[in-house]
Write a structure and sequence with these properties.
Length: about 350
């Protein structure tokens, strides 16, 4: 299944099987419209081990009716274009990729001039097929969140993206609850989406803590997105479902450990274990002294762990009785093929 999935470009990085999991710090609007806070978030994300940071770039008036809570939140959290550009630049100076969720055509046109690592389509925009079509025409990788969608909805978005020219698509399993309870994370669906769409799949996580990302990696996730805040106790925005820099660092460490633990799909014996096996696996040995030319009986034999080289493998036990000892064999000595005739 995994072998059919091709890596997709993500700025200077790649996302796909056999590659390090890409870890994204979702700053979103947790800067609350303050440029200095945004830069502090970018710098803290880099120190915390993030591979990339993601912003949200929308015009409130283009996305939300004036009487909605969303309009109130986003209208006071917009960065100026020059500030967004500076945040992109600072992220790249620190070795990270940067991209943004764009909720409208005007914002997307602007963010496109910043050469984002990819396009991110949020769960709330997955049915905005005209926007997906427009983004797909640019040739950049397209990352689609599915937090409010069924497999059928995701398939429709992927279909439109491919028909519109998208060659590099990734999907995020997501549960659009804040916070998302463990029983609704549905991490097994990561493998279902890998199989169904043959594209890289990740987790955009809204659960508390940082256990889910590590489990998601074990389920096949190739990218992790997690909300990031300097102070998750602040009211509003996405602070409540965010990790602070210390917690994010621990998440990164946990994800990297999970990657190491997963290892390879090939069941093999590492050299370090081979050395242990040579000392510990059983072999045939003499249960008592066996004189030369004695016809060996079953009671003369044992399957034992001995010091030094092992004797014949245990499966040879039934083939030795009735044969003659080629030399004097002391009790507990391993029995080799040269010891019998």
């Amino acid at each position: 299944m995994i072998s059919r999935i091709h890596p997709i470009p993500f700025g200077r990085k790649w996302i796909g099987p056999g590659l390090p999991v890409v870890i994204i710090a979702e700053i979103g609007i947790n800067h609350e419209g303050d440029f200095e806070t945004c830069i502090r978030l970018v710098e803290a994300a880099a120190r915390s081990g993030a591979d990339a940071v993601k912003l949200i770039t929308v015009r409130a008036s283009e996305n939300y009716a004036p009487d909605t809570e969303s309009f109130a939140v986003f209208s006071r959290s917009e960065l100026k274009p020059a500030e967004t550009a500076a945040a992109f630049g600072r992220a790249r100076e620190l070795g990270m990729e940067c991209f943004s969720t764009c909720g409208d055509f005007v914002s997307a046109e602007f963010v496109g001039t910043l050469e984002p690592a990819a396009w991110k389509v949020s769960s709330g925009l997955l049915t905005h097929l005209p926007l997906i079509q427009r983004l797909s025409e640019t040739g950049l990788s397209l990352l689609l969140s599915t937090g409010m969608s069924s497999m059928k909805d995701a398939a429709r978005a992927v279909e439109i993206a491919r028909k519109s020219g998208a060659r590099h698509i990734g999907l995020f399993q997501c549960t659009s609850l804040y916070p998302a309870p463990p029983e609704l994370l549905n991490l097994r669906s990561i493998r279902s989406m890998l199989s169904e769409f043959n594209v890289p799949v990740g987790l955009s996580d809204h659960s508390d803590g940082y256990l889910a990302p590590a489990i998601a990696v074990a389920a096949g996730a190739m990218m992790i997105e997690k909300h990031f805040s300097l102070d998750p106790t602040r009211p509003g925005f996405d602070h409540r479902v965010s990790l602070n820099p210390t917690e994010f660092s621990r998440m990164v460490e946990t994800v990297r450990t999970a990657e190491q633990m997963l290892g390879s799909e090939i069941k093999d014996v590492p050299e370090a274990v081979r050395q242990v096996a040579r000392r510990n696996l059983r072999g045939l040995a003499a249960a008592r002294d066996i004189p030369k030319d004695k016809q060996i009986e079953a009671s003369d034999l044992g399957v034992m762990r001995v010091a030094g080289e092992k004797g014949l493998p245990p499966e040879a036990l039934s083939t030795i009785p009735g044969r003659l000892a080629a030399r004097d064999i002391a009790a507990y000595e391993p029995i080799t093929q040269e010891d019998i005739q």
